[in-house]
Amino acid sequence: MIKNISNLGDAAVYCDFGSEINETINSNVIAYFENLSELIKEEKIHGITNLTPSYNKLIVSFDLKFINYKDTKNLIENLIIKKSDKKNNTKIKIPICCEKEFGLDFERLNSKLNIRKDEIIKLFFSKEYFCYMTGFIAGMPFLGDISEKIRCDRLETPRVKVPKGSVGITEQFTNIYTFESPGGWNIIGNTPMKIFDKMNLSKPSLIKPGNKIIFYQISKEEYLDWNEQ
After folding, report:
1. For an engineered disulfide with 192, which of 23, 81, 123, 226 has Cβ 3.0 to 4.6 Å away?
2. Average pLDDT over residues 181-201
């Protein structure tokens, strides 16, 4: 399943699962991530400092005081992958308000794509999305794949502050900003739902890799009522 394993700097192994981004390849990345995490815990393997999965890559960082590149590579190559019999069928419904004050980039998208706002909204909400990974900021989910008709490049000049809860699209992905932060995605709405809760130590992230996401549209009144509850 891994196409190539190479060193990344002095203390990391780069596992390449291929150049494509799809659910099958990402599921393989997640399987290696989960099985390697379990092996490290069960066998009390010292020196592996971090596992970082992405769309189609897995980076395994290590501490040279305890383990080297060759031994880490052998660990990965000899890993027995046990895929869970339980398929991840978790589906999470996320409300979004697309009113003008939340949909910051509909005019840009209209100009770039030559598609009206109502058509963009229709295409966006008509699909079910797959969580490939989380990152950049805590709990931010990277979800695919949006309709080819509404795929657009990032902003030429990123915003210094993107409001918390903003839902953005760029290229084949959509995401949710879990905190106010800089960002260059095209913002089409905002969700009142808390996607990341740092106070919930057992389950801070609502969305995990492998989850399916269904977005649904709400009015501004519903949005404000949600925040008051």
Report:
1. 226
2. 93
Determine phi and psi for 31, rounding to 5 degrees: -60, -45
User: Please, what sign has the CA dihedral across residues 34, 36, 40, 46?
Assistant: negative
pTM for this prediction: 0.84
Task: Name which of 111, 122, 7, 14 is nearest 68 in CA terms.
Answer: 7
- Nearest CA to 134 among 221, 191, 52? 52
The Cα 1–Cα 34 span in angstroms is 15
H/E stretch holding 41: helix 23-42
Q: Which residues 6+ apart lie within 8 Å of 152 measured at CB?
A: 108, 109, 112, 113, 169, 170, 171, 186
Q: What is residue 210's predicted lDDT score, i.e. its pLDDT?
A: 87
Alpha carbon distance 147, 168 (integer Å): 14
Amino acid letter at 221? E
| 119 vs 83: which has the higher pLDDT | 119
Q: Does residue 229 carry a pLDDT above 80?
A: no
Does the domain at 4-77 match CATH 1.20.120.140? Answer given as no
Closest residue by Cα to residue 181 from 197, 159, 213: 159
Rounded CA-CA distance 47/66 in Å is: 5
CATH of domain 91-228: 2.40.100.10
